[in-house]
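pasting for the record
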Amino acid sequence: MVYYLGVDAGGTSSKSRLIDGTGAILGEGKAGSANARIGTEELHETLLDVCRQATDQAGLGAEDIATIRCGMGIAGINRMGMKQKLQTLTFPFAHVIFSSDSVIANLGAHRGGDGAILILGTGSVGLIKRGEDSSSVGGYGFPISDEGSGAALGLSAIRHALRALDGRTRPTPLSKAITKQFDHAIPRVIDWMDDAAPGDYAAFAPLVMDYAENGDEIAVSIVTDAALHVERFIETILARGATRCVLMGGLAERMKPWLKQRIVARLEAPMGDALDGALILAGYPMPPQEG
């Protein structure tokens, strides 16, 4: 029996999917953030955990686990020296191949074929694939990049909340909802900031979207600005000759109503998800999409 294991390790959460040679799903797993920024040791533990959940669910023994071909897409893998560090980590599988979360998302979206994606999750990044060549747009890391992402929305909301607390701007329902989580105390926000990761900022994104959809003027301005960045991403991707462009990630569907209709009309539906892409990376011959 041949087994394939795909892992999607993102800034907010990590997921795994184990299949056999027929494509039947045998087990899945979910764990916390596995972004390369959390440190090699913690990253290794999270990856092992999410993989173990899938193999335990499938009831595989050590001998079967040792035959697994595994593909992992990891957020932040392109940071200097990270790929080399990952190569030193030990996994109980026959073969492990690492790539970025954007690469596996692209592979899944187009079932290994040519095309482009824009991921709107904790971070944001565009990736265009043509044959063996690929190029990226953005995705340099929070806070210097990741425009239109969950982390960017959260950062803007936190800044608004602080300005409302010290009197520089008028409080809104959004600012009150955020500062309530810190007992409306600026020192608590600062203390939180010292250890906050991109995923912590992104945790506020659903709140921002909720209040924007309910007409909060500051939330609307934050989301409107994010939408402009997303539109520019898509226009740049299409200008580079991408044949298909797919919007992916946790914010994708909620952001679409804020985009110009002519932009949305040029987007395609994904043929698969990032875990499908991780399985393709592992070597699974993903069949073409029916229809």
